[in-house]
Amino acid sequence: MTKLIVLIVIVIGVLALAQLVRLYELSSKLRNRREEDIPNRENRLNATLLLVFMFAFFASFIYLMLEYGWTGRGDAASAHGVETDSLLNLNFIIISAVFFLTNGLLFGFAYKYVRKPGVKAYYFPHDNRLELLWTVVPAIVLAVIIILGLKSWNEQTSDANKDAVRIELFSKQFDWTVRMAGEDNALGYFDYKLTNENNPLALLTTKTIQDAIDSMEMGSTGIKAMEKKLNNGRLMMIPEDRQKMITTLGRKERLVRLLYQMKARHNKGLDARAMDDVVFNANDTLFLCEGQEYEFNFRAKDVIHSAFFPHFRAQMNTVPGMTTRFKFTPTITTNDMRKKMNNNKFNYILMCNKICGSSHYKMKLMVVVLDKPSYKAWYAKVSKLNPAAPDACKTFKNIYAVGKPKKVEAPAAEGQPADSTAVAAN
Ligand SMILES: [Cu+2]
User: Which of 118, 225, 266, 372 is the most buried (most CB within 10 A)?
Assistant: First the structure.
């Protein structure tokens, strides 16, 4: 309703303005004045108004800068964030200088050189020195900005130190899953072909490969059951359904061939890498330690997302089919930041900064930076095969416990997914 009223007011305003202009034209005609004959009084008024506008423009710019600061986000909470902010400051200084200079000239000259009766304008078509000046100076300034920016970018995305903690952030519509490298500080390998409900992160171990093969071959929708159905002469099937099944079967057989190749090549020694990884429930908190360097590895399951840590001044796209990474060292604990901001509800955040679907806005994760002793205590709780470990996180070994009972799949009716009613019927 409010929107409609605003729209109506705007339309009426435009109409009123058009009528005023029309009125002005008519009155000029009545006074026998040509349209281009502007009286001096009006020219001077316009010149003064332009100058007034300039001062109002400058004042509002200065007010906004003082009120909200350069970034509007408070202090940077990471080591490289401070550097990023100083780069941003440099850019703002250059932009502001150019802003004041060009707008000062634009409005100042409009005021100074207002048309005066009897004074003819000076014809000034071209000047090589001026052309050179406004080509070379911006080129040098841009080169400085780009070189400094590249240097800083290379530092942030180069290889992390050996003792940097490795963390994987797995993004999908619409949440983040945190996987921390365990005691060995090495993230287990993965392969998207291993994705299934027991292994949503598609980690690569002897057992997960075998499991993926089993889930392709066995069960009511597995290759064996499908082959049996297709070869069963007595089973009546609609031709389209039959064709569909043949296509699906072909796809599954191709995938299972790749899985067998993977199995043959797999080095069992690599299992340990994955087994001690600590996996957190999606949408749980990311805990970091103050002063510790972190290497973040990003993966995406479905579409491109973007991992944005505003307070740490870090952002990276997460892209399906490739791993992207950056590193940073948090320097201010959540508690210290709360004191600094005088806000005891403040929390760091990781959010998706790429419109990735309908619930994009929900795709965020709380980030907590602890001091060393608290972090150690927290880590001791989550890292071991500890029965007291919170439900929010488990080592991969715990999630994927060896000898874990297989999920019993109920045989499904043709074209029907196995569901609870099927279980009850059997
Ligand atoms: Cu997203």
Answer: 266
The listed CATH number (2.60.40.420, 3.40.50.2300, 2.40.40.20, 3.40.50.880) that belongs to domain 165-181+277-402: 2.60.40.420
**Centroid of ligand 1 to alpha carbon of 307 (angstroms):** 8
State in Å: Cα 172 to ligand 1 middle.
Answer: 7
Query: What's the CA-to-centroid distance between 213 and ligand 1, angstroms?
Result: 31
User: What DSSP letter does each residue of 231-252 carry, written as one string?
Assistant: H-TTS---HHHHHHHHHHHHHH
Dihedral angle, C-alpha 304, 305, 310, 312, nearest 10 °: -80
Q: Quote the mean pLDDT of the chain.
A: 82
Q: pLDDT for 251-306, tens place per residue?
A: 888 888 888 888 888 888 777 787 777 787 777 788 888 888 999 999 998 899 99
Q: What's the pLDDT score for residue 72?
A: 61
pTM (2 decimals)?
A: 0.72
321-341: burial string, b at 16+ Cβ within 10 Å, e else: eeebbbbbbbbbbbbebeeee
CA of 305 to the centre of ligand 1 (A): 4
121 CA to centre of ligand 1 in angstroms: 58
Which residues line ion ligand 1, judged by CB < 5 Å?
Answer: 305, 352, 356, 363
Task: With H, G, I as helix, E, B as strand and everything else as coil, classify residue 40.
Answer: helix
Mean pLDDT across the stretch 345-356? 90
For 165, residues 6+ apart whose C-beta sits below 8 A from its C-beta are 180, 181, 185, 289, 292, 293, 294, 295
Q: What is the 320 CA–ligand 1 centroid distance (Å)?
A: 12
**64 C-alpha vs ligand 1 centroid, how far in Å?**
31
| pLDDT confidence band for 138 (50 / 70 / 90) | very high
Q: What is the mean pLDDT of residues 388-396?
A: 61
Question: What separation in Å is there between the alpha carbon of 302 and the centre of ligand 1?
Answer: 9
381 Cα–ligand 1 center, Å: 30
Which pLDDT score is estimated for 70?
Answer: 64
